[in-house]
Specification:
- This protein has a single domain (2-79), classed as OB fold (Dihydrolipoamide Acetyltransferase, E2P).
- A hairpin with a 4-residue loop joins strand 4 and strand 5.
- The strands form two sheets. Strands 1-8-6-3 form a four-stranded antiparallel beta sheet, with no helix packed on it. The protein has a four-stranded antiparallel beta sheet with strand order 5-4-2-7, with no helix packed on it.
- It is 0% helix and 51% strand.
- It is mainly β and 83 residues long.
- It is built from no helices and eight strands.
């Protein structure tokens, strides 16, 4: 089993941080690549962020309404080896 990080995205060139609004999938639930995973808000936009992989979501440090720098690991997706 390997993991794929779920990170705070860089939505625009001027984005350096974002507010984590909340998960759209419960911890331990399966997710598909490109499935909406969580919502984030920046100065200019609120958007759903898509899953980077297919596997099982494990919530990490992300707490609703907290601000995180771009690249912060919010959680991981556990993927089967070779997946």
């Amino acid at each position: 089993m390997s993991t794929v990080p779920v990170q705070m995205p860089k939505l625009t060139m001027a984005t350096f941080e974002g507010t984590f609004i909340g998960w759209l999938v419960d911890d331990g639930q399966p997710v598909a690549e490109n499935q909406p995973l969580y919502t984030v808000e920046t100065e200019k936009v609120e958007t759903e962020v898509l899953s980077p992989a297919t596997g099982v979501l494990r919530h990490g440090i992300a707490k609703p309404q907290e601000v995180y720098p771009v690249g912060t690991k919010l959680g991981v997706i556990e993927v089967a080896d070779g997946g």
